[in-house]
Design goal:
This protein is mainly β. Helix content is 2%, strand content 49%. Strands 2-3-4-11-6-9-12 form a seven-stranded antiparallel sheet, with no helix packed on it. A four-stranded antiparallel sheet has the order 5-10-7-8, with no helix packed on it. It has a four-stranded antiparallel sheet with strand order 16-21-18-19, with no helix packed on it.
Length: 229
């Protein structure tokens, strides 16, 4: 079963330096029908203006993954980390028992667009942590490539939850598929362009909850397939 959340149903925060779309309830936006999906709590699609950014602010008890679509984002936190995140970089910050950080767009003439994905960890009070890895475009093209997992094997970033994060780049007409074991669920987010997912058309900014595919008579293999259109 696929349940689509259209881009236009997302919340919106618009400031002079930020244009942010919220797939799930976030900040001043509250939708009782969209408070998260399983352990997934936030998908924010942010565009930050040049020479602007998020001032220092706190988080706790959340694993936060940042994925830059275009531009560059400067990160600084209370753990002493400082880095620039660019397309193909995945950053994971475990807020745990508490951390503060800031995110800034340094160039004076180019905005940055990023996805922030928040996942509830498997327990509270974890030691705060930070990790950043680069995933080459060639490894993501034409497939769904692992970005994050609980064990962090094969160069993936590590998250403190029984969940996995994938990213893919599909040329027009190309397709990729992902198996779902019995009882597992998936959320598909279309960052750019449009795809067909098990026959359902999704446009940029749309999301889809994918559940019970093993019970679907047309999907007896427990897989969902995405194809660029």
């Amino acid at each position: 079963m696929i349940t689509i959340r259209k881009s236009g149903e997302r919340g919106l925060t618009r400031l002079d330096w930020l244009d942010s779309r919220h797939t799930f309830s976030f900040g001043d936006f509250y939708d009782p029908a969209a408070t998260g999906f399983s352990v997934l709590r936030v998908i924010n699609d942010d565009v930050v203006a040049p020479a602007a950014g998020f001032p220092t602010h706190p988080h706790r008890d959340m694993d936060i993954i940042t994925w830059v679509l275009w531009g560059a984002l400067e990160h600084r936190d209370s753990l002493g980390n400082g880095s620039i995140i660019r397309p193909g970089d995945a950053q994971r910050m475990t807020a745990g028992r508490g951390v503060t950080h800031s995110e800034f767009n340094p160039p004076p003439d180019e905005p940055v667009r990023l996805l922030q994905v928040w996942i509830l960890p498997d327990r509270q009070g974890l030691m705060p942590g930070y990790e950043q890895r680069h995933f080459a475009e060639a490894d993501r093209r034409g497939r769904l490539s692992h970005i994050a997992s609980p064990d962090g094997t094969d160069g993936w970033i590590t998250i403190r939850q029984d969940a996995r994060v994938y990213a893919g780049l599909l040329d027009a007409g190309a397709s990729a598929e992902q198996s779902l074991n019995a009882g597992r669920r998936a959320w598909l987010h279309v960052a750019r362009s449009a795809v067909q997912a098990n026959g359902a058309r999704l446009s940029e900014g749309d999301g889809a909850a994918i559940e019970d595919e093993m019970q679907n008579r047309d999907r007896s293999d427990g897989k969902f397939r995405s194809a660029a259109v």
